[in-house]
Amino acid sequence: NICIKSLNTKYIHFLDGDCRFSISDTKSFIFFLKSNKTNILFINSSKIEDNKKFSLTSLIPQDFFLFLPKKLRYLIKSISVISYQIVVSKDLLFESNIFFDEKLGLGTDMTQSEEVCFLMNILKSKVKVNMAEYTLSNFCAKSKSHLPNKLNLDKNLISKGYVIRKILGKKGLILVPLISIIFYLKNKPYVNIISSLNLVRKGFLFKE
User: Fold this and answer.
1) CA-CA distance, 24 to 34, in Å (whole number)?
2) Other C-beta atoms within 10 Å of 72: how many?
3) Structure confidence by residue, pLDDT tens digits, 55-79
4) Which residues pair with 89 in a beta bridge?
5) What's the pTM?
């Protein structure tokens, strides 16, 4: 957040350490941003290497997402796609006064989901958002951060519940069982359905 506030640039590109892309990709999405007057870009790729057993997005035809409200579409993609990048106009962030939730991310008790919360807060803001989805031909992710690790899994599940509450409020409680089942299917046998439900519920009930 300190870096974001001090940057003198038009766009900010957020990416994880496991992401790989080329300079030509950067030129490609910058041209796209300028040509389409887009102030937030959701970048994904099919070139993802990990040990993922279950993907919600792989079960849903891509055309189905076009009929979903934008916030719901990217909420589903954000929690089920292993790796993606976000490019955001700095003006959009300052106009909406939205920054990263410092309770999420590496070094906290909820080590993941900071990008999901960040993206959803932008989409639920009253600021005009012109968002587009883009696929980069050379963008790939060789993810090791999602390999099974009991402590990381627990923190990941807690973070999902926390984000649901932050974005949807109390009505998000209805999604807790669904999210718990999805992450159980993704991470079995390292977590069982009861512990998955309890951890997501713990994050949902987190006292700030």
Assistant:
1) 16
2) 12
3) 555 555 666 666 777 667 776 666 6
4) 11
5) 0.74
